[in-house]
Design a protein that fits this description.
Layout: E1 9-15, H1 22-32, E2 38-44, H2 51-58, E3 63-68, H3 74-84, E4 89-92, H4 104-112, E5 118-123, H5 130-146, E6 159-162, H6 163-168, H7 179-185, E7 190-195, H8 211-228, H9 233-261, H10 269-300, E8 309-314, E9 317-318
Parallel strand pairs: 1-2, 1-4, 2-3, 5-7
Antiparallel strand pairs: 3-8, 4-6, 5-6, 8-9
Helix pairs in contact: 5-8, 9-10
Length: about 325
């Protein structure tokens, strides 16, 4: 049962070439959130059509338009919107009208109760092509297999976050696909609820079959970074030490063969392997130390964002 709240809601929507959808999307958000206190944060990812102009001409005081200086991709556009959002609760959704804003009131009570930090949608009867469904299924399968997070639909953009969780997530690359996992790794309690899903209203989908490979690559990168980012020496150092020990063991064996049994070891490939393991292990251990120093420098450096904003327009006027 939808519950009204006086808390400010921020509806964050990344946009790229959605001039035909943005007006109708705005109307549907207004209809769905009547009686709520909210702002709509549109982030234009350097669209090449009239998306920015259409939003500006709305002259809607609830609409905040963030225009990025170049095309950064959906993850950084979303990150810009999350950083800007003023709301105590933050809602994310796509701008192609496949997500339905009328689902938002039904999702809010779970975060308002304080029991959950994130409410994520499970798209019912998806109206997508196989080109979009296949990578989504791969991603969902990998997340469930590799982590303890059992989310049925990680690809659904319609989500509600508490402010602290939304602000603490550092999105980069194309990690918006794994935003549930990022939140989970930050300690979020996540609730899944069924939501409606519609066919794209207008415009062209930005997804292709190459997304399958991006999903796999991003998943591997995310798991590596989240597990070893703050302690790379635990990965490179351990592997390096094991390689060194293996190389030393091989060479001790060869020394015993040489001096104990008088056999010639100069032409044995095993000697080369032993030396390679020792040298490779030293290199990996050194890489681990260097990365530890780089991580320390990273955390002590200035907190600069990986995107640049051209301007911000509120209600049709430059802020």
């Amino acid at each position: 049962m939808p519950v009204l709240t006086d808390a400010l809601l921020s509806i964050v929507v990344p946009l790229y070439n959605e001039e035909e959808n943005v007006t109708l999307l705005t109307e549907r958000i207004h209809e769905s959130l009547e009686g709520y206190n909210y702002e709509i944060v549109y982030v234009d990812d350097f669209s090449t059509d009239r998306t920015r102009k259409v939003i500006t001409e709305l002259k809607d005081p609830k609409v905040h338009l963030i225009s990025l200086k170049k095309n950064y991709g959906q993850s950084l556009a979303l990150a810009a919107g999350l950083d800007y959002a003023h709301g105590e609760y933050i809602v994310t959704m796509d701008g192609d009208l496949q997500n339905d804003p009328s689902d938002i009131p039904g999702m809010l009570p779970y975060v308002l109760s304080g029991e959950y930090d994130v409410v994520t949608g499970i798209r019912q009867k998806r109206k997508d092509s196989l080109v979009k469904k296949i990578p989504s299924k791969i991603a969902n399968f990998m997340v469930r297999r590799v982590t303890k997070l059992d989310i049925k639909d990680n690809g659904c953009a319609l989500k509600v976050f508490t402010r602290d969780i939304a602000k603490d997530m550092n999105l980069y690359g194309e990690m918006h696909r794994f935003i549930n996992l990022l939140a989970y790794l930050e300690g979020a309690q996540i609730k899944q609820v069924p939501v409606k899903h519609h066919a794209r209203n207008a415009g062209v989908s930005k997804y292709g079959l190459e997304r399958v490979f991006k999903v796999v690559a991003d998943m591997m990168l995310l798991l590596f970074i989240r597990k070893y980012f703050q302690r790379p020496i635990h990965l490179f150092g351990i592997i390096g030490v094991l390689m060194i020990l293996l190389g030393v063991g091989i060479n001790i064996y060869l020394l015993i063969v040489k001096f104990g049994f008088g056999q010639d070891i100069g032409n044995r490939p095993l000697l080369i392997f032993g030396l390679m393991f020792i040298l490779g292990g030293i290199q990996l251990f050194t890489i681990g130390i260097v990365m530890e120093l780089l991580i320390r420098t990273y955390y002590e450096s200035q907190n600069k964002r990986p995107y640049r904003i051209k301007n911000v327009i509120i209600g049709g006027e430059t802020a």
